[in-house]
Amino acid sequence: QKALDMQGQKVLISAGPTKEMIDPVRFFTNRSSGKMGFALAEAAAERGADVTLVAGPVTIDAQHPAITRIDVVSAEEMYHVMNDQFADKDIVIKAAAVADYRPKEVHTSKMKKQEGDDVITLERTKDILKKLGERKENQFLVGFAAETDTPIEYGLGKLKKKNLDAIVVNDVSRQGAGFEGDTNIVTYINKKESVTDLQQATKKEIAVQLLDCILQDMKDDSI
Ligand code: PMT
Questions:
Q1: Where would I find the DNA/pantothenate metabolism flavoprotein C-terminal domain in this sequence (predicted)?
Q2: 10-106+120-222 belongs to which homologous superfamily?
């Protein structure tokens, strides 16, 4: 049991996938159960933080009374809620698996099957984390990077490009790590490029260790 060492801290966390509609019955999405983001929200709430959890479409529940949950569906909705919630937060963690593309045209009635192939044109969604990085003031901003090849290199690239204070690199090709399961294996890298490897553990235990890393870095930054 951790002490209430996050009392008075306002934490904003995003979790889960986003869903991008093609027509009323079909959509594009990303893999994510929301477990990693929900574990972070619960771990922070148990340490006394006031937590806002922005969740894409998931089937799990947030248990702690100190968690205010806001449900969203699309990347655009997640962007608006994260942007509205950002200003007064101390720590912002983006564990969500946001769709990078959405159909350019959303059909209002069900698309009819064609003979042979069909083409759906996709357009980029907003990069929520990058936009938050651009307007960051005192917030400690943490991204996740789900990677399959040279994860540390890509993670460092995202840390710099998105003006983050830290990134949690998730090599989703490893057994026991990544989407849907109850465990994860991650590497925490802060903006001084100090690297901390967290061994395989439950997502809740990983969440506790990530919060330890974040709180330590916030303390070091304030000296
Ligand atoms: O939910 P689980 O089943 O428990 O799985 C957990 C997880 C594997 C989804 C999680 O640990 C994780 O790695 N989340 C990030 C997934 C992801 O989309 O990574 P990315 O490398 O594509 O994005 C990098 C960062 O930019 C992420 O913080 C993401 O939230 C953010 N992003 C990405 C695209 C976009 N349009 N807007 C964003 O804000």
A1: 6-216
A2: CoaB-like (3.40.50.10300)
